[in-house]
Amino acid sequence: MSAAINLTVEEVKASEFNCTGIRRRFPELDLLEERALDDCLELLDDTVSELENALSDLSSKTAAKNENDMQTLLSGAMTNQYTCLDGFAFSKEKIRPYIEGRLVNISRHVSNTLAMLNKIRKTTSFEGEAFPDYGKMKGGFPRWLSRRDRRLLQAAVEDIEPDVVVAKDGSGNFTTVGAAVAAAKNSSAARFVIYIKEGAYFEYVEVDKKKTNLMLVGDGIGRTWIKGNRSVVDGWTTFRSSTVVKKDSKKAAMLRSPKVLPNLLPIAPKR
């Protein structure tokens, strides 16, 4: 399995080189195609990170405890390739055929690795659990979620003490969500809570991979919005249309991982 992952990493790096070469070969790409290539380069870089993290988990002494993490990382790595291809759905220069073969091959290799992982997973470890992919549960939450984080998720907004407050009217520490995220410490081991007051925030928030342990708290559905209007018509890919995204994990599946979920807890509604 380690050999299969290492081989896939090399293929991903070769595909990155190929994408860079395409830009030199087609110097007059339109805006959408330029952005689609940028997407692919970022997604391929994410894939390398995910595969290397899965390899690290596999090589550790606690590999059996990391099986859910590995499944999540490999699933994300496989999804990246199709997200990359989606960006070329409206390509005028027909760039997709120049990269599709390599990406499909990468996905197949990752799929095979997932199949191997599923065969060795100790699926009986969580037998009877409502959500086996989350691990063992306690009080409706995964056991790996700390007691403090469980309290945060259950608390009403008025009972939470945020680290910073975002308010459009200037009554908080910041007027934009992006500025509040940027203010958080890199690689923090402590939870950083950002309270976003009622209002519509027209921005695109990209949470860098170094910004760990963030929690965004809003005033609830219909009261706190983070909005945008990017579309293919305006030269944007679907990948770039997300209003809030963690830069190294733009897949919803990544939120299943004990190593990833604590890094970016969802916006909590007002109770």
Automatic annotation (TrEMBL):
Pathway named in the protein's UniProt entry: Glycan metabolism; pectin degradation; 2-dehydro-3-deoxy-D-gluconate from pectin: step 1/5
One of the GO BP terms on file: cell wall modification
CDD domains for this protein: PMEI-like_3
Pfam family, one: PMEI
Domain of life: Eukaryota
InterPro entries: Invertase/methylesterase_inhib (IPR035513), Pectin_lyas_fold (IPR012334), Pectin_lyase_fold/virulence (IPR011050), Pectinesterase_cat (IPR000070), Pectinesterase_inhib_dom (IPR006501)
This protein's UniProt keywords: Aspartyl esterase, Cell wall biogenesis/degradation, Coiled coil, Hydrolase
Domain Pectinesterase inhibitor: 1-116
Coiled coil: 41-68
MF-aspect GO terms: enzyme inhibitor activity; pectinesterase activity
Catalyzed reactions: [(1->4)-alpha-D-galacturonosyl methyl ester](n) + n H2O = [(1->4)-alpha-D-galacturonosyl](n) + n methanol + n H(+)
Family to which this protein belongs: In the C-terminal section; belongs to the pectinesterase family.
UniProt cross-references to PANTHER family, sorted A to Z: PECTINESTERASE (PTHR31707)
Protein name per its UniProtKB record: Plant invertase/pectin methylesterase inhibitor superfamily
